[in-house]
């Protein structure tokens, strides 16, 4: 091989590595890039995994798919969402059964519509399996799927919502539990053609908890398994941190946290361990807020606790700081910390920065009419993030600018059955949280999506709260909105070639 051929191969390898890394960036949704910088291109393929929604026979589940409009995408492409077991080894629909015979594929839950318009699908009962979604071409950049389930009675009754997520190899879930009233499952979904081997570690108030399963869990190809946490240990604890790590393969993971008395919801994975954290969008009528934190390192963490209110950063009386011992789950009751106003929790180190994971357990209502949801610490919006399932006055978008004033463009898409998009620009002052209620498309029919795009300023954090009322219970679910990772940064080929040839 001559030198030019070797340089081209090296360049191609470097580009592939950079493209893989670029999923962690937050490039411009416009697809443009300044001169001399890496080009920002729309992703060409996206995968999403949705856990099996419920074991209740009276559960009603809706799925909403949405792709925001992105400049520079290809004209073709497709997207689909279907049962994990209907995916064959070659990536097409159908799975083998009884030798070479292929099972007839089940009808997809929904057929995604063109970018800019949501599509919906519904199921009911306890037999809806986990779903695997794939999108390519113009459907891929920023593709978002929301799973929302309503259960009117029984353990976990209320509204349960989760954003379907990309497969990964490590997850942290502070806020799970094995107390007598809790029924918490870790749902693991494997989209790959080979089995995945997964370890689950539990950490309580005194440190690591010995598990009854030491060899890990094998998740079959295109399979999904719910793991009941109380079967892993005899210890009954209110606050646990669950660590899911994958030895081989990739999985999707989420915790379904159900309470016999106070409803329940999905607990999504917290953002990666960090010294500073933001937990956005505590409902202003929250009656009880509990902070659960864990540090996986060898050093204790000391955190300053502040609430980003509509008027600025406030230190909650009696909860000015939180000491988190290394390897131990720590919890603090914050009560009705928002006191009737919008709020987000901001955690920063008091001195030395130690990586921490954290989540909030939030309660609305009182007595027998309580409902629970969770808010994990999340990554910032970056250049764009989307909430797929919104229903007019029952949706509230919460925006937080913890360190610098930020200008934000919010777009309500067309409705799934009709309507015209509406855009609003708002300014979030430094250190504050602002709720954006009832931004709906003109002439709305069906559900719609909300897309958030910072225009200028510092980092922005966001979440969406969806509410409903059943039998007097103030049901709700909260989903954080990190970057949609719809574009990747790719270095200019000619620049890389010249560097490699020197």
Alpha-beta classification: mainly beta
- Residues in helices, as a percent range: under 10%
Task: Give me the number of helical elements.
Answer: 2
Count of β-strands:
37
Terminal residue distance: 18 Å
Q: Mean of the pLDDT scores? A: 87
What proportion strand? over 45%
Your description of this structure?
- By secondary structure, this protein is mainly β.
- 6% of the residues lie in helices and 47% in strands.
- It is built from 2 helices and 37 strands.
- The protein has helices at 3-22, 493-501, and strands spanning 39-42, 45-50, 59-66, 79-83, 119-124, 131-136, 144-151, 158-163, 170-176, 182-189, 196-204, 207-209, 217-219, 224-228, 240-248, 252-259, 263-267, 277-282, 288-294, 301-309, 312-314, 321-324, 330-335, 343-349, 357-364, 371-376, 385-390, 395-401, 406-412, 418-420, 422-428, 432-437, 442-445, 448-457, 461-470, 473-480, 487-490.
- The strands form 10 sheets. Strands 9, 11, 12, 13 and 15 form a 5-stranded antiparallel sheet that branches.
- Helix 1 crosses helix 2 (493-501).
- The longest helix is centred in the N-terminal third of the chain and has 20 residues, at 3-22.
- The radius of gyration is 22 Å and the shape is globular.
- 49% of the residues are buried.
């Amino acid at each position: 091989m001559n030198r030019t051929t070797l340089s081209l191969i090296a360049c191609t390898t470097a580009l592939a590595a950079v493209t893989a890394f670029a999923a962690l960036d937050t490039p411009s949704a416009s697809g443009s890039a300044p001169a001399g910088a890496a080009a920002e291109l729309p992703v060409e393929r996206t995968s999403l995994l949705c856990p099996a929604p419920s074991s209740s026979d009276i559960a009603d589940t809706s799925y909403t798919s949405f792709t925001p409009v992105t400049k520079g995408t290809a004209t073709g492409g497709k997207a689909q969402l279907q049962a994990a077991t209907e995916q064959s080894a070659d990536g097409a629909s159908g799975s083998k059964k009884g030798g070479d015979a292929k099972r007839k594929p089940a009808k997809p839950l929904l057929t995604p519509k063109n970018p800019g318009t949501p599509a919906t699908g519904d199921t009911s009962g306890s037999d809806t399996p986990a779903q695997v979604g794939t999108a390519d071409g113009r459907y891929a950049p920023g593709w978002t799927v929301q799973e929302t389930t309503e259960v009117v009675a029984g353990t976990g009754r209320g509204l349960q919502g989760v954003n379907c997520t990309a497969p990964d190899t490590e997850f942290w879930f502070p806020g799970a539990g094995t107390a007598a009233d809790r029924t918490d499952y870790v749902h693991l979904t494997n989209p790959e053609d080979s089995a995945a081997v997964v370890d689950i570690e539990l950490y309580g108030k005194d440190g690591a908890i010995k598990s009854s399963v030491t060899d890990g869990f094998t998740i079959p190809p295109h399979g999904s398994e719910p793991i009941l946490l109380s079967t892993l240990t005899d210890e009954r604890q209110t606050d646990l941190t669950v660590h899911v790590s994958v030895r081989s393969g990739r999985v999707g993971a989420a915790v379904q946290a159900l309470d016999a008395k106070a409803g329940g919801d999905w607990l999504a994975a917290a953002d990666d361990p960090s010294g500073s954290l933001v937990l956005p969008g505590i409902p202003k009528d929250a009656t009880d807020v509990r902070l659960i934190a864990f540090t996986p390192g060898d050093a204790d963490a000391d955190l300053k606790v502040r609430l980003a209110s509509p008027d600025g950063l406030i230190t909650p009386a009696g909860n000015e700081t939180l000491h988190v011992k290394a390897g131990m789950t720590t919890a603090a009751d914050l009560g009705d910390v928002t006191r009737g106003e919008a709020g987000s929790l901001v955690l920063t180190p008091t001195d030395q920065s130690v990586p921490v994971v954290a989540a909030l357990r939030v309660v609305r209502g009182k007595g027998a009419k309580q409902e629970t949801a969770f808010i994990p610490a999340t990554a910032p919006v970056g250049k764009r993030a989307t909430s797929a399932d919104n229903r007019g006055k029952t949706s509230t978008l919460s925006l937080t600018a913890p360190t610098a004033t930020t200008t934000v463009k919010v777009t309500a898409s067309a409705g799934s059955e009709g309507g015209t998009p509406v855009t609003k620009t708002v300014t979030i002052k430094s250190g504050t949280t602002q709720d954006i209620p009832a931004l709906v498309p003109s002439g709305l029919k069906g559900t719609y999506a909300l897309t958030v795009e910072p225009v200028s300023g510092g980092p922005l954090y966001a979440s969406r709260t969806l509410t409903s009322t059943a039998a007097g219970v103030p049901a709700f679910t909260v989903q954080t909105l990190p970057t949609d990772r719809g574009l990747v940064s790719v270095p200019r080929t000619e620049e890389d070639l010249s560097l490699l040839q020197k």
